[in-house]
Design brief:
The chain is mainly α and 309 residues long. It has a single domain, classed as Orthogonal Bundle (MetI-like fold), CATH 1.10.3720. It has 14 helices and no strands. It has helices at 2-12, 19-45, 65-71, 74-107, 112-119, 121-124, 127-137, 144-151, 165-194, 198-205, 210-238, 242-247, 259-269, 273-304. The protein starts with a helix and ends in a 5-residue tail after the last helix. The relative contact order is 0.12.
Length: 309
């Protein structure tokens, strides 16, 4: 009887090679239902005229019609170009400000830990909260900035920061830079901490000045860290939505419309979910292109410093 029971239990016993799969099974199921299934569903709907107001349209296959419509849609390409311009300006300014902050903190010998902690505060805020914060600051009637400028006598009338197209884009860029410059500062500061002192001391002995040391030793060493930060931030900025939607909603007259605010408006406001998903998959090209570019730059920077590719 005991032998029979042992044989039955042995049928249900896990083999050693199957234990890792069983332990990973919950994570695999979560990935399938939370990531893989929505991706497949959204890809399928991009080949249909699916509208939220017409559920039966989900089963109508129209091939590449949505994609052909996108390539002739002027609004999409304007938003696409504006997103690239916004991404380039924001990332470059974040890099410059982050580099300046990292260099300053690296030279401080007292209170450095406190400054590193304070430096991380902006990135802890939700983008929606940052959007509301700067929407209040740049408000043309009760905004803190206009009140300060008028109190100092720098202007005699309120400036429409969020109404004029260029000023509104500048205000959004300012909010984005304020929130995420610390990403560059933290990674560049890590690069400065990891940098060996021997090359700098040798350059000093050879008579190099501060600019030459920074240009030929410090900057090439920390550039791999900068390209890592650029890769992370390019993915964030390319799909920027929260701050733009809260501060301007894509206005005035679509002059601050970025790629993902246009996709959201097409999919939810206009209920054209099939076309919106097609736009989303076309926009992935932007993210892949920037990721590939920064990855190649990262590899080149590591090779320049003598590291493995």
């Amino acid at each position: 009887m005991k032998a029979k029971m042992d044989r039955r239990l042995g049928r249900w016993a896990l083999r050693p090679q199957s234990i890792p799969f069983v332990l990973l099974l919950p994570a695999i199921l979560v990935i399938v239902f939370v990531v893989l299934f929505p991706l497949i569903f959204s890809l399928y709907t991009s080949f249909t005229p699916y509208r939220l107001t017409r559920p039966e349209s989900l089963w109508t296959f129209i091939g590449l019609r949505n994609y052909r419509r996108i390539f002739t849609d002027l609004d999409f390409w304007i938003a696409f170009g504006r997103t690239i311009l916004f991404l380039a300006v924001v990332i470059n300014l974040e890099f410059l400000f982050g580099l300046l902050i990292a260099l300053l903190i690296n030279r401080i010998t007292w209170g450095q830990r406190v400054l590193r902690t304070v430096m991380m505060f902006p990135m802890m805020f939700s983008p929606i909260l940052v959007g509301f914060q700067f929407k209040f600051i740049f408000n043309d009637n009760i905004g803190v900035l206009n009140n300060a400028l008028q109190s100092l006598g720098l202007t005699d009338q309120a400036i429409a920061w969020l109404v004029d197209g260029w000023l509104a884009m500048g205000s959004i860029a300012f909010a984005e830079i304020w929130m995420s410059t610390s990403v560059f500062a933290i990674l560049l500061l890590a690069g400065l901490f990891a940098m060996p002192r021997e090359p700098i001391e040798a350059a000093r002995v050879d008579g190099c000045n501060n600019w030459q040391v920074f240009r030929h030793i410090t900057l090439p060493f920390i550039m791999p860290f900068a390209f890592i930060a650029m890769t992370i931030r390019s993915l964030d900025v390319a799909r920027a939505y929260d701050i733009v939607d809260v501060m301007t909603g894509g206005g005035p007259a679509g002059r601050t419309e970025l790629l993902w605010t246009l996709i959201a408006r097409t999919g939810y406001d206009n209920a054209r979910m099939g076309q919106a998903n097609a736009m989303a998959y076309v926009s992935i090209i932007l993210s892949i292109a920037f990721t590939y570019y920064f990855f190649t730059r990262l590899v080149a920077a590591r090779r320049y410093m003598g590291g493995a590719a």
